[in-house]
Amino acid sequence: MPNVHKEKIQLSTVLFDLDGTLYDTAPDLAFALNQLCLAHHAPALAFKDIRPHAGHGSHSLLKLALNIDTTHPTFQQRYEQFITLYQSHISKTTQLFTGVKQVLTYLEEHAIPWGIVTNKPQNLTDQLLSMVPLPYKPHCLIYGNSLPKRKPFPDPILYACQLLKKNPYHCLYIGDTEIDVLASKAAGTQSMVALYGYISQSEDPYSWQADGYIKHPIDIITWLQSVVTPRSFC
Fold it and tell me: Omega into 154 within 30° of 0, i.e. cis?
């Protein structure tokens, strides 16, 4: 059963993170990363070690695989190599998490505006969405490079609320990392953690003190029905 907020709240829109929340992209990211390791004579990594980093972006993956960060002289070259490898394999095994289609259908049938706020750059996001399409078009889509600042800054979530003409307090943001919760809280939205996402065993997501926790995407519907007052969506 999903963790449920005790108080009835008024919500007017739902926003989602992408990797680890809507899409299970980790297998394709892991393949590309290990191809990069192979090219640079680094040891391949087990999927279980890569998966928790999949939601933290390319920088985290490169640090894991090659132990380099943005200050390293070869970082940009390695980054571009990784992106090229990922683009060539971006939709081989990636799919929507089980239950996401039902959740989006529920939102559409109940006229609930929804959108995506991701740190994934536009070129990769658009490629993914074109090759593994969603059942419906999001009402707004904010990329990692849409604004000067990205999550954990609140700017992208606030911009999404602005585009949808909704009060942030009446918005639910769903993600699978502490960064998502920090951004949601800073923006003043309700926060929900997707426990099925890319969370490592060393992390304690309940310490992030989100407003809700779900073990499966379909739990989103149960949570909304439990905490939303009748006709609170508008």
Answer: no
Q: Is the pLDDT of residue 234 over 70?
A: no
Per residue in 48-86, pLDDT tens? 999 999 988 999 999 999 999 999 999 999 999 999 999
Please enumerate, as own/partner, the contacts of 86-89 that have beta carbons within 8 Å and a separation of 24 or more. 86/28, 86/29, 86/32, 86/124, 87/124, 87/127, 88/32, 89/28, 89/31, 89/32, 89/35
Q: Which of 80, 164, 83 is nearest to 124 (CA)?
A: 83
d(CA 24, CA 217): 12
Q: Contact, 112 vs 138, CB < 8 A?
A: no
pLDDT the model gives residue 3? 53
Quick count: other Cβ atoms within 10 Å of Cβ 59?
14
Torsion angles phi and psi, residue 135, rounded to 5: -70, -20
Residue 230 contacts residue 21 (beta carbons within 8 Å): no
pLDDT at 7: 57
Going by C-beta distance under 8 Å and a sequence separation of 6 or more, which residues neighbour residue 143? Answer: 118, 120, 121, 122, 125
C-alpha to C-alpha distances, 34 to 30, 47, 58, 176, 181, nearest whole angstrom: 6, 9, 13, 23, 30
pLDDT in tens, 12-36: 899 999 999 999 999 999 999 999 9
- Total Cβ atoms within 10 A of residue 141: 18
Q: What is the pLDDT of residues 188-203, one digit of tens each?
A: 999 999 999 999 999 9
List the one residue out of 64, 123, 138, 56 whose CA is nearest residue 90. 123
Supply the residues annotated as catalytic.
17
